[in-house]
Structure formats: C-alpha cells, structure tokens
Amino acid sequence: KFVAPLTFRSLTGNPVVTDMFDEPGEWDVRHVSLAKRAQLFLICPATANVLGKAANGIADDMLTTTLMASRCPVVVAPAMNDAMWENAVVRGNVEKLRSLGYIFAGPVQGMLACGTVGPGRMAEPEAIFEVVRHVYLAKGRPSVKGMRIMVSAGPTVEPIDPVRYIANRSSGKMGYALASAAAAR
C-alpha cells in the first residue's frame, strides 16, 4: 500500500498487474504473456515460501505462475529470518533451485527484521542489480540501457483460510529502491 499500483502505472506508462484473475483490457493470458516478454526474472525479496513454491513447481499466484511460464534466467534475492534461512528444508529448496540454474544474490549477514543479527538479510539494491546485470550481459545481450525492468514490491500475504492470513510488514521501499537503481543505470 506504500507504493500503490497507480504510482508504477503513472511512472512507467505501463499497466500494473497485481491479480492473476483481473479481467484484462485485451485478450491476454497475463502470466504467459509476461513470461514470454521477460529477458530476466528477478524475485526480490524471495521469501522461504516463494523459494519452496519455485523448487516444487507450485504455481498458485501471479508471481509463481509467471515464473513457471518463463524460460529466461532467474535471479533470486532471499530475505528471511536467520533460522528460516538455515532450516534444512529451505536449504534443500535453495540447492534444488541452484541445480536448476537459479542464481542467488545474497542473502547477507546483518540486522534482520525480527531484531536478530545473522544470515538472511536481503542484499543491498546495488549488489542485487550487479548480479542481474552480470547474468543479463553473460548471455551475450547488449547493455541494460533501454531495457524494460519490472519490479514487484510490497508485502506478502498468504491466506490461511477465507478469513485469516499471514503477512509481513513490507512497505515496498526496497522494491522502489531497486526500481530507482535500475532506472539510474
């Protein structure tokens, strides 16, 4: 809610997709068409939940269905509690994704949202962008100048049932910083 879809639509002049089941303005299977146009896919922040879904082929929202339909390189920037990052299941998902060719930008050691210090902090936007730039250019592509970059930002909300949900307090500031760093380059 901190950075609303209207902000991105106004700044880019492009439509903003927030719901997999929104009625498109023109006929389009949204997640498939987005995946076809993608030259590189960045998941930032990549939660333990998203890593688990990606590692196991679960596609039940806009992000994961678009990811499963894409054929481009994928960069993930994990961000989670240190205990979650060190959890054997998460580590297994990370290894599986690495074996599938996913590239990881972080996480790094630092102060976490829960107040502890440890691994799991998302890398700085500049460091993430450098990984993205390296992966993009390594495929023999031209510079990132003029490249269209889509950044997804904001909280993660996972329904428990029709009434309850689990969410984080993400404001979208990191996504805005990544978009700003990309635009600056």
User: Which percent band covers the strand fraction?
Assistant: 15-25%
Sequence of strands across the biggest β-sheet: 1-2-3
How many helical stretches?
Answer: 8
Number of strands: 7
Q: State the distance separating the first and last CA atoms.
A: 26 Å
Mean pLDDT: 81
Q: How would you describe the shape?
A: globular
Oligomer: single chain
Task: Explain how this protein is built.
The chain has helices at residues 5-12, 30-37, 48-55, 62-69, 82-85, 88-99, 125-138, 173-184; strands spanning 41-46, 74-78, 103-104, 108-111, 117-121, 157-159, 165-167. By secondary structure, the protein is α/β, with parallel strands linked by helices. Helix 2 (30-37) packs across helix 4 (62-69) and helix 7 (125-138) packs across helix 8. It starts with a helix and ends with a helix.
What's a quick, concise take on this entry?
It contains eight helices and seven strands.
Topology of this structure?
Blueprint lengths: L4 H8 L17 H8 L3 E6 L1 H8 L6 H8 L4 E5 L3 H4 L2 H12 L3 E2 L3 E4 L5 E5 L3 H14 L18 E3 L5 E3 L5 H12 L1
Parallel strand pairs: 1-2, 2-3
Antiparallel strand pairs: 4-5, 6-7
Helix pairs in contact: 2-4, 3-6, 7-8
Q: What key attributes describe this structure?
A:
single chain; 185 residues; alpha/beta
